[in-house]
Every structure is written in C-alpha cells, then in structure tokens.
Specification:
720 residues; alpha+beta; 8-stranded mixed sheet; 24% helix; globular
Length: 720
C-alpha cells in the first residue's frame, strides 16, 4: 500500500512538473510573439521585470525544479514583488543595438535599452588594456547578467569584462538608479529603485557617523553578536593611550581583566612595514612613534581611538618577526586573536602598508550620468556606479549567511580579498569594518550593511541556513580560501589554521593537511578549478609543504562536487602527516594516505593545447574502452619507473607548461555517486618520483562507468 501511495505521489509530481513546463514554454512563446508587436526587446526585456517566462512567481520549467528545487521554491516566494533575473545575456546581442543592417539601414536590434547598456559599458570597460567591444567581436567569453526588481537599483553583472590573473571569471557589478528618485515610475524608463548616498571620502563625518551608529546598534540590539566570556588575551597588544603620542607595546597582560581590542587585517603587499624584532622589543614597549607607522597602521590607530578602543593588535608589531618559535606560537593563536577581538578593521582597499584606506574615493567609484531618451526629444538622467559588494542572485544580496553558494563564490572587491591570510581574519571576526574601495561595509553575525545601502540589509545569521553538513562547510571554506593567493607557499596551511580550529570536526576528527579523518575519502575528491591545466600547480616548494593528496599542494583554487548520497567503495587503512612546528593545524612536511579499494591501470592522454585530458583502458579482446575525461592537477609529465620501459604519469614540478603526451596511470575508485549510469568517482594516480614504490595523485575523475570498477583489482595503495 505504501508503494502504491508513493507511486501516486511520484505520478502527481510528474504531472505537475509537466504542467509547469508547458506553462513556462507558453509564456516564452507568447513573450516573443507579443514582444515584437509591442516593441519589447527579446534580449533585455526593456530592463523591466514584467511578462517574462523567468519572472519570479511564474511556473518554472521541470528541469530547473529538479536540478535546483530550493532555488525554484525561492523564486516563487520572492514573486510577491516583480523580479526578473537574467543570468546569461549575450554582449553580441546587446552590441547589435548599435550595428546597422545594410538592407534596412536600421539597427539590427533597435533597442534603446540595449544602447544604454552599451554606453555604460563604454564608460567603464574601454581602456588601454581591454575593450568590451573588441572582446565581444573576438568571441571572448564575456557576458552580462541582469537583476531587475521593483524598488531596488537595477543590477548589471559584468562577467569577464576585466582581467584578473588569479580569479576565474572575474565580475564587476554596476547599479543603475536615478538621483533624485522620482516619486512615481516614469513610463518608458528602466525599472530602478533608490540607493543610499556614498561619501566621496572615507574620512568624512558621514563615514564616521555610519561606523559609530553601526557598532552601537549591534551592541544594543543584536543578541546573536554577543560573545561568550573568555579569558583569552593576546600575548601582545598596542596600547593606544590618550592620544597618538602615547602608543606603546604591551605584553603579558593578565587574563580576566575584561581586555577588549581591535585587530587589523591588511595587505603586506611585498612591503616591509615597521615590525617587531628581537632587538626592538624593549624600545617599542617604551614608545611607538606614530609618524613611523605606515599609513595602514596609522589608519587602524585612528579608527580604534575614534570608536573608543584601548588596544589594537597588528600582526607585524605583535609577533616577533625574526623569531621562528614566536611566529609559530602566535600563528597558532591567531584564530583566537581575530575571533575574540571586539572588532576587526579590514584595510580592504589598500594593496600595501603605505597606501591609506582613509582617503578620497577613486574616480572609478564615483557615479556616472547617462541621458536616456524616454520619448522623442525627452531624456532622463540615469546614474550608474560600481557596487562595492557583488550582488547575490535571486534577492540581490538580501540573504547571504555563511555557507550559502553566494558566500562561497562571490568575491568581494578590493586588493585584500585576494590575499590568503586575510580570509580567516574576516571569517573569524565577530564584527568587521571593511574599508573597501567604494564604501565602508560593516558586517557582524546578524547582518551586513554598507554606507551606500538602504535597508533591509543582508542577513548573515547562520540560523537562516538550511541543512549544511560540517563537511560541506569545510569544502566551502577551502573553496573560498584557495581562490586567494599567498606570498609564501609554506603559509598555505597556517593561513587557514584558525578557521580549522573552530570547525565542529575538531571534536571528533583528526586534521590531516587540510582534510579531516572522518570524511577523508570524500575530502580526497577535491578538484582543481578550471583555467590552469597546462601549468605546473605543484612546485618543489609546494611538494615540501604538502602531500599530493592534499589540496594544499596546489597553487590554485579547488572545489568539490556534491556527493550527499554517495556510497563509499573504499576504506582508509592509515593516514599520517608530519607536522612542522608547534601548530598541529599548521605547516606539514609530507604525509601518507593508505587506501583499500579497486584500482584499474589505464592509459592517460593529455593535449594541453586543446585542454583535453582522457583516460581509457585496454579490454581483454584488444579493444579500448570509451575515453573518460578527468580533471588534471595541473601540468603532468611522463615519469619513469626503475626496471621498466613504460612511463607513468606524475605531476610536473617545473616552471614550464606541459606538452601533449600518452602514458600510463591508474584509476582508484572511491565512491559511487547518485547519478544513473556514469556514477563512479575517484582519483587518477601516477607514480611518485620522490618516493619510489608509492603513488601520487595527478587528478580526479567523476562520471566513470561501472565497468571500470568491475574490472578493477582489489588492492591497497599508499599515496604521498
């Protein structure tokens, strides 16, 4: 009877999905037919949220409901206010609004709304380095997204309009609005809402008022931001005294004194700011000369004194920089320094210590005006400005707690957000003042607000989360962290150690070079993000600081596929790492993982010019299996095995790119995924050139057919 009931439910759900899909397709066809008749652009929908099949609240196609049911449900929920999100709009189609059809002598796409976008792109994305027009004509992968919602500024997502050496698919968000905003919508104008004022100088009275009011409101009305009492006090703090002439370094402050401090998060930027050394310890304990501090430190002192703090913690002045033992000890305590601070000051707009973040805003962050024709001879002024925070989809950033997709993927704007050390400094902060290039952004455990934002403010409280497992949380942390860069490869694990120490896994699991023993098999399935398959991502320095099975061996970002319903097909026999120094969550010099499971030796084919990487095996009848694509761990080279003529894959440690090759490798199956046919996942292994007899990881693979597992040999492998 229960089976019959379930069958009826499945049938009913299937019918409902089919009906919704039919309605969605009907809306799409109707829009295209009626749009031509009424002059509604099929590309930009006249920058309006109405009468589009993707308008929130409409029926959603079945494949979207199946692939992302939470997103589909959220779109229905938000449909109370007319909202439209177009995530992939072709710049080629937008540019056709300027191109003349020689047969008709009219624009190929006669849309004034698309021409407005062209004018805005001209103002922001044409310089001596790049032109969005040239990139479009050269068929480069640039695209536009639109977030249109009544009562909100119109958001234009600009993907790949700028170049970022490290960050894949860089994005700039622009917001369109009117100033002043009319009391009623203007017929023919894009759908836009008001924005908050943005000061032209972060030293202004308006900015100071914003900072003080945000902190006061948080302390008074945010119970979720109240910290539990702690006896922790940093080893050293800078005493701020009664003014800038009374600064000095304090150490050995007794715990239990209710000591409160601000902590600075900043870019070293290759510079050498004033630092604490063994020889200067006594001098700095007597007095710190304010004028000798670099600009970012001076700003931290100024802000701390302005908000009434008695102490500030700055890494280069509170850790002895020429004492390795002191550095290791203090690096292990850094998580507590930032998580127990009253507030963290983030100098996000400063690329180095000599560049202040209390300064006038750059021209790029000031609004630009565009005259838009709403009728013959009549124009209205439309303003555009860069957003200091990238907008989250669906609700334009009104819901962004930790461990949501947008939290893990959207990069904040500013030099600091590209630095590895600064990830955990902001992640651990109970409150943080971000001095971003375009605005001051205050963030706490309750909400995030920007000086140029109007309420309601984005919620950051973890209580708004769905069910996100500790493993998934850690994977998101690592994904966000590894998209940033470090000056020293040896810092790869120490720079995230503070975040590791507050994870739930710490109570039940052993930490293994950035992975956790209780979820080790699934943790091993990390994948290198696209973009550097031809580049050696494991240098000799990385090899000395992490085993190949750890994501910390990569000089690039990593991610994981979702494997919530995975069936594990391997077991962990042993896992060890060699920790360097006093911090158990810090640097390692190597490690081994021994696994028991199915191994299938195979052939590996790599063509770096075409960005293709394949594995396949020879069947008993002499034929070959179908080639399976895998995600390589960067450039690979054929290695030799003593006593054998056949080569086998290994990672390239050189500084030159890889070349096309055919060699041997091995597929080790770890789990069976939730997919239908190509459902096995695992690692691609080669031989270690450093440790004879052991294997090393050279890639990861998913969507592998079952026959690879069936013909595999049950064995034990050790990966270094």
């Amino acid at each position: 009877m229960e089976n019959l009931s379930n069958s009826i439910k499945d049938l009913t759900k299937g019918v409902s999905l089919a009906v919704d899909t039919a309605a969605w397709m009907g809306n799409s066809i109707s829009r295209r037919i009626n749009g031509r008749r009424h002059g509604v652009c099929a590309v930009c929908n006249n920058l309006q949220p109405y009468n589009h099949e993707e308008t929130f609240g409409n029926a959603v196609s079945s494949w979207k409901q199946i692939s992302d049911p939470e997103r589909a449900a959220r779109k229905l929920e938000l449909g109370v206010i007319p909202t439209l999100v177009l995530e992939k709009v072709s710049t080629k189609k937008i540019l056709e609004s300027r191109e003349i059809n020689p047969q008709t002598n009219l624009p190929k796409n006669d849309c004034k709304y698309c021409r407005l976008l062209c004018d805005i792109f001209d103002a922001y994305f044409i310089d001596k380095w790049m032109s969005w027009i040239t990139e479009t004509k050269n068929a480069m992968p640039i695209q536009v997204g639109l977030m249109i919602k009544e009562g909100q500024p119109l958001i234009v997502n600009c993907w790949n309009f700028t170049y970022d050496k490290w960050f894949q698919n860089p994005r700039v968000d622009l917001e369109l609005y009117m100033d002043p905003m009319p009391l009623a919508p203007i017929p023919g104008a894009p759908t836009m809402g008001p924005v908050g004022p943005r000061a032209t100088d972060s030293r202004s009275k308006e900015c100071t008022t914003f900072i003080k009011e945000s902190i006061e409101e948080c302390c008074r009305y945010h119970p979720g931001c109240t910290k539990d009492p702690s006896d922790f006090v940093p080893t050293r703090l800078i005493f701020l005294g009664e003014g800038k002439d009374a600064l000095r370094l304090c150490d050995g402050i007794p715990s239990g004194q209710g000591v409160s401090w601000a902590a600075l998060s900043h870019c070293w930027g290759g510079g050498k700011p004033l630092s604490l050394k063994k020889a200067t310890l006594d001098k700095l304990k007597e007095h710190i000369e304010f004028s000798e501090l670099p600009a970012t430190f001076q700003d931290a002192v100024t802000i701390s004194q302005e908000i009434g703090m008695a102490y500030v913690w700055i890494d280069s002045l509170c850790i002895v920089q020429d004492d390795k033992t002191d550095w290791e000890k203090e690096a292990a305590r850094m998580g507590a320094v930032y998580s127990q601070a009253f507030i963290v000051i983030s100098g996000a707009s400063s690329p180095n210590p000599s560049t202040p973040y209390l300064r006038p805003r750059g021209d790029d962050w000031l609004p630009k005006r565009f005259d838009f024709p709403i009728s013959p001879g009549v124009t209205i002024p439309i303003m555009a400005r860069q957003r200091s925070l990238l907008a989250a989809p669906l609700d334009q950033g009104l819901l962004e707690p930790p461990f949501t997709g947008s939290w893990a993927t959207l990069k904040k704007v500013g030099p600091l957000y590209g630095r590895g050390w600064c990830f955990q400094e902001s992640f651990l902060a109970p409150r943080i003042l971000n001095f971003a290039p375009g605005a001051i952004i205050y963030e706490c455990k309750t909400y995030r607000k920007s000086e140029d934002q109007l309420p309601p403010y984005p919620i950051t409280a973890p209580g708004t989360l769905g069910e996100v497992t500790p493993m998934e949380q850690w994977h998101m942390i690592v994904k966000s962290y590894t998209s940033r860069q470090l000056t020293f490869t040896g810092d790869k694990l120490p720079a995230i150690a503070g975040a590791a120490t507050i994870m739930p896994q710490i109570q039940t699991s052993k930490y293994l070079a950035g992975l956790w023993s209780e979820t080790l098999l699934l943790d091993l399935l990390w994948q290198v993000m696209p973009g550097r398959a031809h580049t050696p991502l494991m240098t000799k320095e990385h090899e000395e600081n992490a085993p190949t099975w750890s994501w910390a061996s990569m000089n690039w970002g990593v991610t994981w596929n979702s494997l919530k319903a995975a069936e594990l097909l391997a077991t962990v026999v042993d896992a060890q790492t060699t920790v360097v120094g006093a911090n158990p969550y810090g640097q390692v010099s190597g490690g081994t993982v021994t696994l028991r499971g199915r191994l299938k030796y195979c052939r590996l084919s790599a063509n770096y010019h075409k960005n293709q990487h394949w594995v396949y095996y020879k069947k008993p009848d002499g034929s070959y299996s179908k080639k399976q694509h895998f995600r390589t761990d960067g450039a690979l080279v054929p290695g030799t095995v003593p006593g054998q003529t056949e080569t086998i894959a290994c990672r390239s440690r050189l500084t030159v790119s890889g070349s096309a090759m055919e060699t041997s490798a091995a597929f080790f199956c770890i789990a069976k995924g939730p997919w239908l046919k190509y459902d096995h996942v695992g690692l691609i292994l080669g031989r270690s050139p450093k440790s004879p007899g052991y294997m090393e990881r050279v890639g990861s693979i998913s969507n592998v057919p079952k026959d690879w597992y069936d013909v595999g040999e049950e064995t034990t492998v050790t990966i270094v």
